[in-house]
Write a structure and sequence with these properties.
Chain lengths: 315, 514
Amino acid sequence: MSKFLRSWESLLILILGITTAVNISLAPEFLTLQNQVNLFQLSIEKIIIATIMTLIIINGEIDLSVASIMGLSACTFGTIIDVGMPASLAILLCLGLGIMLGAINAFWITIIGIPSLVVTLASLIGYRGFARVLLEDRGITGFPDWFIALGRDGLIGSLPLSFFAFALLVATLSIVLHRTGFGREVFTIGNSAEVAHYSGLRVARVKSILFILSGGISAMAGLFYAARLASVRGDAAFGFELDIITMVLLGGVSIFGGKGSMLGVVLSILIVLNLRNGMALMNITGHIQTAVIGILLIASVLIPNMLERLRSVST
Amino acid sequence: MISPPLAGERSTIVSHPILELRHISKSFGMTAAMADVSIAILPGQVHAIVGENGAGKSTLIKILTGVHQPDEGEMLVDGKQMQIRSTEDAQKHGIAAIFQEPMVFPDLDVAENIFISHHNLGLVMNWATQYQHANEIIARLGITLDPRRLANGLTLAEQQTVEIARALSLNVRALIMDEPTASLSAHEVDRLVQIVEALKMRGVAVIYISHRLEEIFRIADTVTVMRDGKHISTKPISQVTQQGMVRDMVGRSINHFSMKVAANAHGEKILSVRNLTRDGVFSDVSFDLHIGEVLCFAGLIGSRRTDVGLALFGVEPATSGYIEVARQPVTIDSPQSALKYLIAYVSEDRRKFGLALNMPIFANISLPSLKKLLRLFGLIDRKAEIAMAESHRERLSIRTPNVTIDVGKLSGGNQQKVMLAKWLETEPRILIFDEPTRGIDIGAKTEVHNIIRELAIRGVAIIVISSDLPEVLMLADRVLVMREGRQMGIFDISEATQENIMALATGQTAAMSQ
């Protein structure tokens, strides 16, 4: 396990080096702090969610509903502001809503026993539906200045609050995943839920915690999104789940569970951001950018499988 | 002679074998699964094949159906030498098999299931004739079953009927039935016997494999006994007695297994189980277990011994009954609660339930004991974890370059030891072993036996579920025999013999107690 990961991660570092070099040659100002901050800003909500998605996929599950929770949280925030309640109360309510939406997913997955792919596909549609019902065709603006500033302005230097949230999540979840008993349980359940159950692990509890965390973090990401754009609409964050899952899989996390590392996911996030930036510098359109990322995703799933197959043939 | 297809209503008086095995041998690596077996199968007759687990019955079925090729010997179909290279080959020669678990497609209806193996149906199906054909075939079996019903809603017995009908539709001439009644009720068994009679009338040869001796006397014309891959005897049923059959099945003299050490002097009672029941699976299991004692659960496959083990470990909790650990009444409804009372269960299926194969040795060993290794903020003490694994590696002589490689890379015997280490680390008072030596080589087997005995001496109370009778007689202080979810009796080791255990396990005699 560790050996393969090491080689996967070194491959990612190599790719990152190449994309960075190309970007610098295209635009010397690429490495400036301001450009890097802008780069992160554009995708900050997605990469925040990618941290918890890493744990969920290593656990052998998937959460497709994250972008819909983002959207519903942002729309709920807008609605509450619209009726004239204070933004601080709205923030708390939205975080609570996210935790509740995650708990609903967890209920169907762990208590009723429906696969997370199905449950979160349903909630992807359902939660998005609520968001659209809430706002219909309206867009809501007029958030308090301090709220918008939180999303856009630097908190320390030019780094905004959302960047610190991301850094904190990477650090804590990386320690939780790789150094704590809970992280070991996440890995073991991803390897074999049955072995975990027969070893006295509380499989349902671990899964529930992850989905509830995912709901809460997605709701927070939705608030950052609302703050950064200073407006919300029913289709806020629509389709983000695919980019998020792409980043996680490209980071070497196995879609079958049980394998992966936070380091790999952070590297893959940097690569994806670099690629998008580089292609933008070369005036490549957004659609083609998406296609390139798609090809990367296919390669990231195919290459490990092909290596595995080659290895089993040779032994 | 050329056997006519079964269309005719002919009853066979004198006939030549449909199928004949001559001096068939088959080995897997070093183990001879079948050695020099010769059997002739006559049309319109039921040929029963009996033997203990591991006697070579499954290998025989696999050779007849083309799954395995024999190493030596020849097979004759209608007196002509043939090679059966695949199940399709077997089907072409009119040989088919049905197993304990019927293989039907739940989302197709009865008729579709019957005709699923017909490759020459053409592009457009004529459903009207299809259902009519299905009806005819079902009628030939002397039963009623609506061909339009979905297989999903059928009982196990009805699914079995569908399988038999499928074989008939392919003009089967030799039908192998492997433990067909293992999951059937008494009434369903009666119906199956009727179907077998109908098949005989049509000149189909039935090769019938069962552990239930009374059934064999009811149904068979000829009985072949196998043991350790060898052909022991073939006799007409009229010349067979139950005692004689059991003796042939068990065979070996007990003297071969006299390595048994003197029974331990036992300590106080640690586990007390009364009327433990899981509805529809097993009922009224009652026994006591003492410190330092080895209690073996003997019985045939399907006797539900594993289910009792799973109930005691909380994986599939009992629905009623009473459990006392160290004289305290307890409720065991999950593995967590079992572990709390220091009960551990070493699964028979290492790959599925025992080990996370893609994780390192140390992570597998520490898994149920992780709490011991947790420090501030739930961080794992890595050094202590590696030390834990190393100590087991030394004690159990697990052969591996280091404890950080994935456990899946080890040999079967070493994997078994890692699984053992994992449970020993929980320091159990009660340790349940389910088939602890299945599928590992002789050397590792002896080591596992020694470990079990040593644990007992050190005061662990042990339950061993084993289908290996010599192993049971060697390890046990007492033997609990189960049959079809019921406890048939408990022997002290001084009274236990292979014969009386088999007699209870097969239901040959009424239950004896203590």
